[in-house]
Specification:
The protein has helices spanning 3-9, 45-60, 72-81; strands at residues 21-27, 30-37, 65-68. Strands 2-1-3 form a three-stranded antiparallel beta sheet. By secondary structure, the protein is an alpha+beta fold. Helix 1 (3-9) packs across helix 2. It has one domain (3-81). It starts with a helix and ends in an 8-residue tail after the last helix.
C-alpha cells in the first residue's frame, strides 16, 4: 500500500463534520475503531480503490475490517461500484 493511500485513509476528522466512514477491526463480536476517513478526502473511485486495497491488505494479515457510520454519499458510490457487501458498509 502506498503512502498516499495511508494519507487518504488516516485523516483527522473535524468534529463538526461527519466523516465519510469509520474503519473498524472486527474481533469476534467486538468492533474496534481503528480510524476514520475525514471529509477533506474526495469521495471518488480513488477512495473506493484505497478502501479495497486496505481491506485486502488487512485480510491478508488475518485482520477483518469493515466500514461503520458510512456517509450516504459514500454508501451510494459503494453500491454503484458493487462492493457494499465486501466492505460490510
Amino acid at each position: 500500500m502506498s503512502s498516499a493511500t495511508v494519507d487518504r485513509l488516516s485523516g483527522v476528522t473535524n468534529h463538526d463534520e461527519q466523516p465519510w466512514a469509520r474503519i473498524v477491526l472486527v474481533v469476534g463480536d467486538l468492533d474496534l475503531p481503528i480510524g476514520s476517513i475525514d471529509r477533506t478526502t474526495r469521495c471518488d473511485l480513488a477512495l473506493v480503490d484505497d478502501l479495497l486495497r486496505f481491506h485486502l491488505a488487512a485480510g491478508r494479515l488475518g485482520l477483518p475490517i469493515r466500514l461503520a457510520d458510512v456517509h450516504e454519499d459514500l454508501r451510494e458510490l459503494l453500491e454503484m461500484v458493487g462492493v457494499t457487501d465486501l466492505l460490510d458498509a
